[in-house]
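Why do we bother with a discrete structure alphabet at all? Because it lets us treat a fold like text: something you can write down, compare, and reason about line by line. To make this less abstract, here is a complete entry for Glycerophosphodiester phosphodiesterase family protein. Read it the way you would read a sentence in a foreign language you are learning: slowly, and without expecting to understand everything at once.
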Amino acid sequence: MSHPYFDGPRQPRVFAHRGLVAPGGDGPAVWENTALAFAAAHATGAEYIETDCRLTADGDVVLVHDDTLARLNGDTRPIDTMRTVELERIFADHGGLMTVKDALASFPSMRFNIDAKTTAVAAPLGRVIADDAHRVLVTSFADANRKAAVAAALAAGAEIRPATSGGRNTILALRGFTAVRLSPARALTEIDAVQIPERQGPVKIVTPTVIDAAHRLGVEVHVWTVNDPDDMVRLVDAGVDGIVSDRADLAVAALHAP
């Protein structure tokens, strides 16, 4: 039986990668993982938002991908040394800072795919999402972060565990077991989805064997980050269940056309 996270929204699933930041436009740039980026994704008809979280110096779980703002505005201070109110001021002209709590409250119809970027943020993330575990999928490159967030959500009173996507070790096990035609069942215990690139360097990760093995165990396959509509359609035709894209507008048009 699938997790409630997957009940209702259209298939194949479109995950708006850090929201939607439209190319071009006038005025202050809208940044990824902001209120305006999420609103733009919602307006396209995307039903899932992929995002990332870190802790501020105040212990708030904010939606920021990098460990600093250097890529966005040149500020090299670590996010975990900055006060939440300072980040709010910085983000004010760029779409608005979002905490996980804010995002869940502001977009009650959306499902969130949240990457715990650090060990420190995992347990606080779990506590924040406890009341919304039915519409949150927790992931991390580190499987330990994912497990810590799930444990914290359950300890905080979540009626069900949040959905989860396997980390780096889970993906390696899935790819390795299937390559030698062994079942990856043990590696996919309490895993609801695997979210993988089509290739990692010269190695093809998304293969018919991987897709079939995951599906036999009731695990969905989502591919990131795909921005070309032809590639989206090709991957869905090959059997993948979801596409993570910077261009949710193109993905919805390509995959959910009337």
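What the structure line is telling us, in plain words: The mean pLDDT is 95. Residues 4-255 form a domain with the TIM Barrel fold (CATH 3.20.20.190).
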